[in-house]
């Protein structure tokens, strides 16, 4: 599909802290999400900055599919900033997209790590989400993202 929807938004100020649901993401071009750990320099990979670490998105469908194999990961537990519905994210790597009023460049897949599996005490979660853990994006334009905003591929 080429159009999706933003379901929920999440940020946190520091690594390992609970991701809090947000009503809006204030995106700063070339920097990150206002108040989020990577813009603040307090994220796990903050000492290795790269444009593709400014914002992350994961498909709600992938989180829901975990239930069928006996695993569970809520939207805030996923450690991703945006939970989407209705758009295949893996196909967007290397493309520019619009999320609400913000233009993003999708850099690469956001592969899960053993940290998430250990934090949630769910062996097999890393493997279950491999190639399904969402995408990492660079913020190209200033603007806000809200729940129910559309996600679309730019030509």
Q: How many runs of DSSP E, i.e. beta strands?
A: 11
CATH class division: Mainly Beta
Strand content range: 25-35%
Kindly identify the CATH topology.
Answer: M1 Pyruvate Kinase, Domain 3
**Spatial sequence of strands, sheet with the most strands:** 1-6-5-9-8-7-11
Alpha-beta content class = alpha+beta
The largest sheet is: 7 strands, mixed, barrel
> Mean pLDDT, nearest integer?
93
Taking pLDDT < 50 over at least 5 consecutive residues as the criterion, the unreliable ranges are: none
The number of distinct helices, counting runs of at least 4 residues, comes to 4
Second-tier CATH architecture: Beta Barrel
Describe the fold and architecture:
The chain has helices at residues 37-40, 60-65, 114-120, 125-129, and strands at 3-11, 20-22, 25-28, 32-33, 55-59, 82-85, 96-99, 102-109, 135-139, 143-145, 150-153. The strands form 2 sheets. A 7-stranded mixed barrel has the order 1-6-5-9-8-7-11. A 3-stranded antiparallel sheet has the order 4-3-10. It has 155 residues and is α+β, with helices and mostly antiparallel strands. It starts with a strand and ends with a strand. It is globular, with a radius of gyration of 14 Å. It has a single domain (3-153), classed as PK beta-barrel domain-like (M1 Pyruvate Kinase, Domain 3, Beta Barrel). Helices cover 14% and strands 33% of the residues. The protein contains 4 helices and 11 strands, in the order ββββαβαβββααβββ.
């Amino acid at each position: 599909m080429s159009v999706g929807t933003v379901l929920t938004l999440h940020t946190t100020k520091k690594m390992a802290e609970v991701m809090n649901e947000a009503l809006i993401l204030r995106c700063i071009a070339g920097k990150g999400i206002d108040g989020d750990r990577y813009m603040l320099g307090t994220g796990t990979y903050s000492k290795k900055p790269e444009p593709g670490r400014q914002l992350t998105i994961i498909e709600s469908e992938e989180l829901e599919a975990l239930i069928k194999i006996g695993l569970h990961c809520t939207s805030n537990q996923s450690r991703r900033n945006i939970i989407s519905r209705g758009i295949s994210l893996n196909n967007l790597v290397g493309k520019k997209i619009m999320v609400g009023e913000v233009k993003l460049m999708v850099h690469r897949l956001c592969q899960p790590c053993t940290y998430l599996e250990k934090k949630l005490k769910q062996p097999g979660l890393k493997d279950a989400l491999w190639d399904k853990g969402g995408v990492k994006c660079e913020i190209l334009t200033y603007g806000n993202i809200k729940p129910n905003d559309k996600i679309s591929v730019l030509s």
